[in-house]
Amino acid sequence: MNPLQSGVLINLTHIFVHRKKWNEKISQVILAIIYLLVFATSLTACAPASMMSNWPGSAVKDDMVYVAYQAHLYAIQASNGTELWRFPKETDNKISFYAPPALSPDGTQLIAGGFNHVLYSLDPNTGSEQWRFEESKYPYIAGPLITEDSIYAPTNDHLLYALDRKGNKRWEFKTNAPIWATPTYDPACECIYVACLDHILYALRARDGALLWKTERLEGAIASSPVLSEDGILYFGTFGKLLHAFDPRAKADVWTYTASNWIWGSPLLVEDQVIFSDLSGNVIALDSKNGAERWKIATNAAITAQPIVYQNVIYIGNEAGELYAIDLQGNLIWQQPKKFDGKILTTALVADEIILIPLVAKDNLMIAINQDGGQAWAYQPVK
Fold this sequence. Notes:
By secondary structure, this protein is mainly beta. About 10% of the residues lie in helices and about 40% in strands. Helix 1 packs antiparallel against helix 2 (about 25-45).
């Protein structure tokens, strides 16, 4: 991909999140072009570091927050915003990060997929490299799923790789399109669910990757992870505007809800509600049992992130850089949203009783706020 194509993709992504101004037909064309450009990037293996930099990925554990952004993966102390380490230590023009990193359940590994097609295992405390997996020929867009003994890493090359915890490949599974969503593990069937841009949800046996079942081609691409409820129902949204409550045992929808726009982020399950957003900027709460609408709040810009909940308050940001705090009954906690100089495109995090907001901004990569909305600290990497 040449610089012109990269610029076109960035502009298309900008248009995409402003889809409120576009009709569905135009947006479908835009998505198709984005696919082609991403594929072209993969095929030419010349992805520039700046290409997906608008979408920092992050993860948190205890007092450590990890942010993958452009040329580095950063470890930051959540309580005060101090940078503890960065990987690599020196900028390498061949290395960039977009996919959210993930921590192993025992906390000994931080797994991060690079836009350079390499999957890294790092020491979460020091950032030192433990091993790397280099078989993929395409970038990592989604974060990996890590279980007690395995790592499931989706890539842009239509493949899901299953590795052991030492980085040895156990199996691979091929879909019909790139995978932009982290798989979901279901201990009841010892299987994983893979949502794909080919409009299909797959169920695979975790130990060997055997296909257990798959949905028919749905109404739109699935770009975010399904969320599994305690009673075994999967909730996920599509670019076809539908939110699905899907029973994997019956292999059928329990109900669906039609939003006013594409659904990008994963839903959030809280008590008996499923809460999600769409690209029109709506935040919607449904009865998880029957899909009946409980409440709906319109914000001022597109939302691509999953909402989070902390101490019964829902936090969600939009493309205009506005952060909303909402109680479980749909009432705004703050009379006005907190406005940041930048865009909020990814999911917020919680650590050490503060809310961490990854930003796409000129001055700050992450802002930490207290529950009253006051700023605790801001972080911007030193170049």
